[in-house]
């Protein structure tokens, strides 16, 4: 059985953005902007979103491409022998579900 692929680059970008942003930030954002100074807060928020988000997203894509597995299985495949990094994958999945 072959792997599914996205139809276009735009679809990939929108899917990645949707996963990274999350619906909680979309609903909470207007309230946070109103409470914390409006425009200046938005500029600072976007600055740190880019500064912190791009390296994390790049690392996630790199690890996923190297392992060619699901997020939980990639830790088991790529970890050095004797380390406990596979536990990080399982804890991350539990945190996302809860």
Structure description:
The chain is mainly alpha-helical and 98 residues long. The protein has two domains: 23-67, no CATH class; 70-98, no CATH class. The protein has five helices and no strands. Helix 4 packs antiparallel against helix 5 (85-97). It is extended.
Write the layout of secondary structure elements.
Layout (H helix, E strand, L loop, with lengths): L8 H13 L1 H13 L3 H29 L3 H8 L6 H13 L1
Helix pairs in contact: 3-4, 4-5
Uncertain segments are none
Alpha-carbon Rg, integer: 17 Å
Distance between the termini: 31 Å
Structurally, the number of domains stands at 2
Overall pLDDT level: 77
The string of secondary-structure elements, in order, is HHHHH
Could you give the count of β-strands? 0
Largest sheet: none
Apparent shape: extended
Subcellular location: Membrane
Protein name: Na+-dependent transporters of the SNF family
Membrane topology: Multi-pass membrane protein
Transmembrane segments: 12-33, 39-59
Which short descriptors sum up this protein?
membrane, SNS_sf, mainly alpha, extended, single chain, 2 domains, transport
